[in-house]
What does this fold into?
Amino acid sequence: MSPPVYSGTGMQTGSGSHGAAGGDAEARGRVLLMDREDVEVRLDALADDILEAGGHQDLVLVGIRRRGVQLANRLADIVREKTGRQVPTGSLDITLYRDDFAQIGPRPLIGSTELPSEISDHRVVIVDDVLYTGRTVRAALDEIADFGRPRRIELCVLVDRGGRELPIQPDYVGRAVEVESGRQVAVSVPEIDDDLAVHTVPEEPEE
It folds into this structure.
């Protein structure tokens, strides 16, 4: 049975239709899709799915900066609670691997990439907050390939909002949503935003 899809207005839909609740006021502001409790439940279910699919013996969780890193760490904590083992974690900054790198300005902000010393022959699960076009994941795959050759690479996302431009699909999804034109999905984590939640917000104009 396929998971329910939620529209960007916060109304559940199985056919892509959008509810009218909230009207123009919602369209102009932040609309809550998942509160802290809902996110925690989804993360727990994602950890169960990851463990059921391949165990934890050679598991490595790698988050994409920024908020994928915090979600990967939370998943690692859940796995430790369930198995008694702390799985290795890492972080990727994919800026230099973006296919539009030449277009993002002369001084792009570049964070650090930190991976476990050995990822070859391991099962690496890439963790990100929102999956959209697939281009960020493509960049992450290219970067991982420069550090080793994992036995298997999988993708775990808290939110899949559709709109793919590349043939990339997640292995593990917390929630699939439909987002209205002019809006985007924003994931908040306590380490950065002092909150754990998912909202839709007005899309930021490109500079």
Notes: The first strand starts at residue 5 and ends at 7. Residues 36-54 form the longest helix (19 residues). The radius of gyration is 17 Å.
